[in-house]
Amino acid sequence: MLRADAFFATPASPALPSGVAPAGGAAPSAEFRTLHEEIVRYVRDGEGAGLEPMAGGAATTLGAEARALLLRSGGDAGATDDGADAEQRRRFVEQVAPLAREAGARLGVAPEILTAQAALESGWGQRPLRGADGSDSHNLFGIKAGTGYGGERIAAATTEVGAQGAYATVESFRRYDSAAESFRDVTRLLQTPRYRAVQGTGSDVGAYAAGLVQGGYATDPRYADKLQAVVRSLPRP
């Protein structure tokens, strides 16, 4: 799925006021929550509802800070360069490695591919999908919460790709209590018949990515290329 870029600011976001959205698990500021609410209202109820292009003058009715935050978080969803330095990437890989090994064993997929997918969707853990209160959903794979989903969920802005290009919209996403729960859930999803082409692909990242696209996991036509790029960029022991 196209990575769900909720509202965040990395340390390298000079366009945003300091303290808007702390990196990692720091408590969100009141300013972050205010901007979050403004963007959600804009995308859900205003000009951005459903079909607002992300380029060429998007978000023109938002305040300057909210506009910068929206464009920073959604302008190039799924980009492989998320501002994470080598140390941040190494820590992320170490944290998810046992989870990726367990999921990979169940799916017949090399664990580094699942690690790369989590890195792509979450910006190496630096761009967590957050709720309106700024809390981390621990949703490392950007899995949406459909009408039949009975677990906890959050509403957040994201970027999708359609016939008219990239556009901002608000979607409902699954919320977990931990990264481990996120890995378990994506494993269950990819074990369904819809993603049969993903199962047993081993270390063939091209076949794995093609299976994701075939199953409708991603709307970004460049998703397979981006996933392969992240696999190549994984820190090596």
UniProtKB/TrEMBL annotation:
InterPro entries: Glycosyl_Hydrolase_73, Lysozyme-like_dom_sf, MGlyc_endo_b_GlcNAc-like_dom
Signal peptide: none
Keyword Hydrolase: yes
SMART domains on file: LYZ2 (SM00047)
Source domain of life: Bacteria
Domain Mannosyl-glycoprotein endo-beta-N-acetylglucosamidase-like, first and last residues per copy: 81-235
Record keywords: Cell projection, Cilium, Flagellum, Hydrolase
GO molecular function: amidase activity
Short name of one Pfam family: Glucosaminidase
Gene Ontology biological-process annotations: bacterial-type flagellum-dependent cell motility
Name used for this protein in its record: Flagellar protein FlgJ
Organism: Rubrivivax gelatinosus (Rhodocyclus gelatinosus)
